[in-house]
Design the sequence.
C-alpha cells in the first residue's frame, strides 16, 4: 500500500511578479500576474501524486469558479478529490503572493472554505484512512481537524507527517500524535524558544554539529522525537532523538539550481517526503528525494505545475551531483 492521505487547504493563488518586494506603504510596478491552483494541502497532494503515491485529499472549497478550478487541477494530477467538500455560500480560500526577481516571496492567505474543514470531514473520510501508509497534515485548517486526522492515522497504523506551517502555537496533544514533524528553520527556532539552531557561516563545523545535537534534545523536550528541518538552498537536516549516538543528525545535501520562484517549494518537499515514506523508504532517503523535488520546483513559476515527475527526480539523484 502506498496511499497518502492529505488533510489540508486548497487556495487560489494570485501571484504578482515584481523586481523587488515592496516596503511598507510603498507602491511599485509589477511585471506580470498569474492565477493558479495552490494551498498547502493541494500542493502537497499533487507533489505526492507526482512522486508515485496513491493520494486522497480531504479539504473544502467554495461554490465559486476558484473552487471548481482547484478541484479540477488537483484531480487532473491524479489525486482523489472525493473528500474535498464544496461549501455553499462560502468563498474558496485565496493566497496573494508577491515574487521578486531573486525568487523570494511574500504571501498573505485568507481561509475561506478552508476555515470550515473540521473533525466531521475527517470522520466522513474514514475509508480513505483505512489502509493508508502516510497521513500528511498542514496548518491551514483547524487544529481539531488535524488532531482527528492524526488519531485516525494512528488507528490505521499510518505514519503521521505534520508540516507545522504557517508557524504558531502547537497543541501538545497534536504533537504527541505526530511521528515526523516537518518545519523550516524559522519554525524550528520558534519551537526551540527563538534560538538554538546553527548559524550557517558563523560557526565552525564542530559548533554547528553541537548546535544540531542540542536542537534534537530541545525538540524532544517538546515531545518531538523525529523532525526534518528544511533549509531552503541549504538542503535539510533529519533530526532523530531515537537514533544511535552519531546518527541523530543527518544532513541532506541540496541540489544546486537557478531558482525562479520559491513559492510552494516547502509543500513540494512535504508531499514528496510523504510519497517516498509510503513507498517504504527510510526517512533520510525519503528526505534526499524530497530535497531534489523541492529544488526542481523552484526552477519554474507557480506551484503545482512546477512540480517534477518521479522519473526526472530519480535521474537527478542518479547523477549524484548534490551539494
Sequence:
Amino acid at each position: 500500500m502506498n496511499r497518502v492521505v492529505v488533510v489540508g487547504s486548497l487556495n487560489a493563488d494570485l501571484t504578482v511578479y515584481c523586481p523587488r518586494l515592496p516596503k511598507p506603504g510603498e507602491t511599485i510596478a509589477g511585471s506580470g500576474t498569474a492565477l493558479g491552483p495552490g494551498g498547502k494541502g493541494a500542493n502537497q497532494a499533487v507533489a505526492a501524486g507526482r512522486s508515485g503515491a496513491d493520494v486522497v485529499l480531504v479539504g473544502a472549497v467554495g461554490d465559486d469558479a476558484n473552487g471548481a478550478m482547484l478541484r479540477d487541477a488537483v484531480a487532473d494530477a491524479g489525486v482523489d478529490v472525493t473528500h474535498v467538500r464544496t461549501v455553499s455560500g462560502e468563498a474558496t480560500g485565496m493566497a496573494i503572493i508577491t515574487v521578486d526577481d531573486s525568487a523570494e516571496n511574500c504571501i498573505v492567505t485568507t481561509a475561506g472554505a478552508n476555515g470550515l474543514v473540521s473533525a466531521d470531514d475527517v470522520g466522513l473520510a474514514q475509508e480513505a484512512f483505512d489502509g493508508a501508509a502516510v497521513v500528511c497534515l498542514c496548518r491551514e485548517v483547524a487544529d481539531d481537524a488535524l488532531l482527528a486526522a492524526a488519531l485516525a492515522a494512528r488507528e490505521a497504523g499510518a505514519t503521521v507527517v505534520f508540516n507545522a506551517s504557517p508557524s504558531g502555537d502547537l497543541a501538545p496533544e497534536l504533537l504527541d500524535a505526530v511521528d515526523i514533524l516537518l518545519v523550516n528553520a524559522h519554525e524550528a527556532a520558534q519551537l526551540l524558544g527563538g534560538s538554538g539552531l546553527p548559524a550557517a557561516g558563523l560557526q565552525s563545523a564542530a559548533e554547528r554539529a553541537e548546535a544540531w545535537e542540542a536542537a534534537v534534545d530541545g525538540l524532544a523536550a517538546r515531545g518531538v522525537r523525529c523532525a526534518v528541518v528544511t533549509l531552503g538552498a541549504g538542503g535539510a537536516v533529519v533530526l532523530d532523538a531515537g537514533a544511535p549516538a552519531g546518527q541523530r543528525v543527518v544532513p541532506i545535501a541540496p541540489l544546486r539550481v537557478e531558482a525562479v520562484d520559491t513559492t510552494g517549494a516547502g509543500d513540494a518537499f512535504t508531499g514528496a517526503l510523504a510519497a517516498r515514506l509510503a513507498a517504504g523508504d527510510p526517512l533520510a532517503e525519503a528526505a534526499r528525494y524530497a530535497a531534489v523535488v523541492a529544488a526542481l520546483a523552484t526552477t519554474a513559476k507557480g506551484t503545482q505545475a512546477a512540480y517534477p515527475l518521479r522519473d526526472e527526480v530519480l535521474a537527478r539523484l542518479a547523477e549524484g551531483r548534490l551539494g
Notes: The first strand starts at residue 3 and ends at 7.
